[in-house]
Amino acid sequence: MKRKIAAQLGVTVGLLMVLSIAMLPVQARGEAASLAPATPGASLSVVAAPGDNLLDDTPQEADDAPVAQDASSATLLLGLAGFALVFALIGLIWALRIRQAARRERALYEESPEPVVMTDLRWKISDANRAACDLFGYARDQITAYSLNTLVETKTELEPNVIKETIAAGKVLTFEASVHHDESEPIDLAATTRQVSLAGEPFLLTAFHEITRHKDEQRIFKTFHRQLVEDLPIEVVVMAPQGQYLYVNPKAIPDKDLREFMVGETAVEYCQEMGYHPEVALRRRSHRRRAVSSKATVSYEEIIPDAEGAMRSVTRILNPVLDRRGDVSAVIVYGVDMTELKAYQDQMAEVKAEAERLVELKESFLANISHEFRTPLTGILGFAQLLQEDVDIEQREFVDIILRNGRRLMATLNSMVDLSKLHSNYLEMNVEVFNLVDEVKQVAQSLSTMAQDKELYLRLRATRPEVLVRLDRGHLFRVLEHLIGNAIKFTNDGGVIVEVHGDPEFVHVRVMDSGVGIRNEFLPFLFEEFNQESSGLSRNFEGTGIGLSVVKRLIDLMEGEISVDSEKGEGSVFTLTFPAAFPHPRAGSRNRILVADESEEVHTLVEYVLAPYFDVEYASDFVSALQRAQEVQYDVVLLDTELSDAQSAAETLAPFRQVNGYEQVPVVALDPHAVHGGEVHYMAVGYDECLQKPLDKRLLLETMGHVLYKKRKRRTMRA
Which of 135, 455, 459, 548 could be joined to 115 by an S-S link, Cβ 3.0–4.6 Å? Predict the structure, then answer.
């Protein structure tokens, strides 16, 4: 409406300017007449006599002055007329654009898919778009006879004073409403009202958005969650911060009437109603206040009687609910009945105590058996070996039988003792870095006589002559001895092949035989204690059934894995997998080592020992070592503790730890003094390990394996 008035005003001003300019000639002629000489009784006239020269430029001031004035006035009038015409055209164009903009706004208003209604401050409808007419079911000339609050139903009364205060504060009034039609379900709406001014008069512009589907989804959502809470197998109570009950689910109070009674009451009234001791109410109040004041979850144990009088153990968890301002608006209390669990835990504690007693008895029995068996066996085997050299050839066969059975009994005894130690976690680990190929070769040589006696072949294959592992040498020997020995024992024709190969991450040992094989049904029970595929008096092979159980536990202790592939009558393949001594940090790359030492002899020794397994770089002074660390991310640093001018080994290490990315990189101290107890000092000030000069090959390899193992464990734990 404002734009319409402005357009009309512009056109009116333009027309008035044109009329004013049109009147200017008449006014100019009147002014010229008033300037003529006023001679009494004479009139102004110009008559040309015969012979007079009208073009004579002789000054005739009295006659030429009016003509000049007329010409000047005409020029001025033409300029003013042009200016007025341009101004009128601008006004017309402006009016046209305003009218077009008004039409566009009207079209947007009319064609808007959302209902829009314009009312006065008392909700009397003055205009509505097409969508609003369709929503309320009235034509435009009919809807203006109604007030908006008579067509919609709101949850809150839209009082004029409230509207006025809200609008005056510059706020947007939002509310929810619904429209009811006789033929259909109510339509839920979200309304937004703001004040607009037209022709200086205030109006309210209200836009509606249908939320029927959203409200239906909310109702379904609330119903679902309420039903979920109602059906929960734990107690759920909602309380006001001051202590009044707001909601109680059936698990907390099964009686419906009592649940309804509890709403608005406190724990004191509940305990009085249930006949509980006042201490229960005091305890609950104390924990609720603690949850409200701390705004944190609080839990405690509560012992209360049930309906039959039996005592129940309940764990209560109080979770405060915070509003937008961070204040506690409610406290949700969860109650979990722990009575059965407590009874089960008590029962399990008794069973555990009994099991521990039996384990102690078993260990004591095994210790006694070990002593009682080992002492006579030592004598039997010792004297049998002596007799082996002194008896005749005919009697030597009997001595060999004594030795073979004595060794078998000693092996069984050792396996039982080892199994007992593994169960009790008494078996210690002595980890070192060594060549796996040499260890397998040694085991194979010790069992070669056993294979030759059965006319079997025993072959060793390795992808390379040196495959380093970081394991307990004794435990690995026991594992290999048992697996290769079993392969020979259960093979009657053909032989046994042992393969060794490694990759950047793992090393593998395969023991393959052409023996009797294992049934698929028995494979899941292969590593169980005292379990054999062939058992009873009719079994085909001797043994106690604990060897593979010990093997499996030793492999687990060394963080390895064992797998079996076997078919009955077609032989077996046992595969051992262990981490490599120096696992590669990244795919396709080896560990990078920085040796910071000024001694060329140290560089030469490290090159000889570590170069086959690592990418080694060297620095002869502290500045270049620190610069290399800043440029390259090394996996291990070997640092001479006296390479810098620092006063202590800790001060020498500090600049490396300050380099980005070197906070957790292993740094090994190279100690030139070899002081007793120096290792403890260096590790206390931040070094990961210590190597004393002169360097030893075995200790150097073991130290590298140790620090890289710890680094891998840290990385695995972080992952």
Answer: 135
